[in-house]
Amino acid sequence: MELRQLRYFVVLAEELHFGRAADRLFITTPTLSQQLKVLERELGTPLVLRGRRTELTPAGAALLVSGRAVLRAADEAVRSARRAGGVDDPRLRLGLVNGAPPWLPTRIGELARAAVPGARTVLTSGTTTEQAELLAAGAVDLALLRAPVQLPAAFVRRPVAAEELGILMSATHPLAGASILTPDELDGHELILFPRDVAPGLHDRLLDELRARGVRMRLSDSVLGHAQMVSVLPSRDDVVGVGSLRARRPGLVWRAFPGDPLIVTYVAAWPRDSRHPVLRGVLEMLPAGALTGPAEL
């Protein structure tokens, strides 16, 4: 097994979509599929189920957990060897929360290269909770997370981006034809959310916002990550989910929450005492407000 193949698999397991995973890896979808087949042949077992939806097999779920640990260990081994050899390595270890606007890490990378010529960013994806843990463990230099999030006093945070959240539903859902949703129309409908432990602050805020807007929805017994939810919703006309406009795709419609826009904020967080040269350069160039991305976002 090559580390490259393992990285390919981990990204695919996080996206559960060959096209999106290939985009993240900057390779073609056929290349990703071919390398996955090579890895499955070597292991002697399927890792994903290919069909209308991409799903992990039990073997794939097990490899995702251990694979992430292996990749982190490999990255740390490289860093240790370079430090011991006195090799200058101007790179920024960037923790990227799953589902962040794709332009956001690109802008951070641009700032890093502007601050330190030749600098590069090394991305590690994960949930808000996982990014906070990586930050606390010193495994990333800068983490991008969704607020609200609790962090120890040893870390500084700064808002860097924001986008509006709304209701996602199947194009065949009874409410799909309504251009504006009212609290009464949403009453009693089943809402699928992500597991609370991946982002407790945002999970609780969403439920609080619904109650404050007079929306009495039923929290589903089903608990799905964002990628899985987006894959499931087109075939379910009895449930709704939450997402940004970026989540729209064939078979899905997006509607704003009743009342004022519901905005989710992305924050950058880093150790208060960090002297990382690339990080310090990025922080000096960060605008006082927020970074901006494409107009459609």
UniProtKB/TrEMBL annotation:
Coiled coil: none annotated. Keywords: Activator, DNA-binding, Transcription, Transcription regulation. Pfam families: HTH_1 (PF00126), LysR_substrate (PF03466). Transmembrane segments: none annotated. InterPro entries: LysR_HTH_N, LysR_subst-bd, WH-like_DNA-bd_sf, WH_DNA-bd_sf. It comes from the Bacteria. Residues 1-57 form the HTH lysR-type domain. The keyword Transcription regulation applies. Belongs to the LysR transcriptional regulatory family. This is LysR substrate-binding domain-containing protein. The lineage of its organism: Bacteria, Bacillati, Actinomycetota, Actinomycetes, Mycobacteriales.
